[in-house]
C-alpha cells in the first residue's frame, strides 16, 4: 500500500488541496524575526498576533495549500474573499483529512486543525514542509503555483517522516512587489509594515484610516492583491479558479456598499470573509474609494452617509470623500 505519508498526501489531493507537506513540529525558525517585527510595532492594532502560546502534545504538522485563483480580474474585493469563507472550506476538509488519518492508522490521533487563527506561524511550517519560500512581499511562493493559495495545518500526535524544507529562495534581484505597493507597506524585502498595508487598513483597522494613506487605497474596498499580481511567479503560474466552493458571488459597486445598512450587509456577505470588516469597515472603505474615484454621481449617497449614517467613522470618511471630490 505504500508509505503512510504518500497515502496521506494522496488523500489530501483527493480532497481538493493543491499542495501537501509534512514538517516536524517545534520552535518556529522565524520566531526571532517575528518578535522583532512585533517590537517594531509593524502589527498595528493586531494585538492578537503577540498572543502566541506553546502548543503541546503534538509531534508533526501536516500542511496543505488550496489555490483560490489568481487569473480573475482585479476588483474592489480581493480574490480570496469573493466566495465562501475560506476558513470554513479549509477546516471542513482538514477535519475530513484528520478522520481519514485516524481510519488509516486504526486509532484516534490527537491533533488540531488551524487556518489563520491559531497560535502558530503557518507560513514557517509551510516552508519547513517544503511548500515554498518567503517572497519579498512576505507571501509564501511555490515554484509551480505562485502564491494565490490558502494555507492550513493539522498538528498531530503521530510520528511521520518529514519532508525536506524549502531552503532556497527565488526572488533574485526582482523588486516589483516593493515598487508597486500603493502605500509603500513593504519597507524592506520580506518586511511589511502592516499599518500601511491596504489589506490591514481595509480589514483589521477598526477606526479611521490615516488621511495620508487614503488615496493609496485606490479602488480597493476589501483587501489588496497588488503585490501578488505583479509577482513574476504569479504572472507565469497563477491559475484560474476551479474550486466550486470558492466560486465568487456577484460583486457590487462601492456606491451600493456604502448604502448597505446592517441588515443588508449581513444578508449580502453572510458566510464570506468580508464579514470580518463589519458593516462599518466596509462602508468606511467604500466612502474612501468613492472619494478617490471622483465620480460626481456618487455625491448623493456620500452626502446622505455624511449626514445620516449612524456610525461616526463612516460619517467622517464620507465627508472626507466629498471634500476630496471638491478639490479635484
Q: State the total count of DSSP E strands.
A: 8
Strand content: 5-15%
Question: What's the arrangement of strands in the largest beta sheet?
Answer: 1-2-6-3
Low-pLDDT stretches: none
Structural class estimated from helices and strands: alpha+beta
Alpha-carbon Rg, integer: 21 Å
Shape: globular
Number of domain modules: 2
Could you spell the SSE succession in H and E letters?
HEHEHEHEEEHEEHHHHHHHHH
Mean pLDDT: 96
User: Kindly, what is the distance between the CA atoms of the first and last residues, rounded to a whole number of angstroms?
Assistant: 69 Å
Helix residue percentage = 25-40%
Task: Please describe the biggest sheet, giving its number of strands, its sense, and whether it closes into a barrel.
Answer: 4 strands, antiparallel
- Number of helical runs? 14
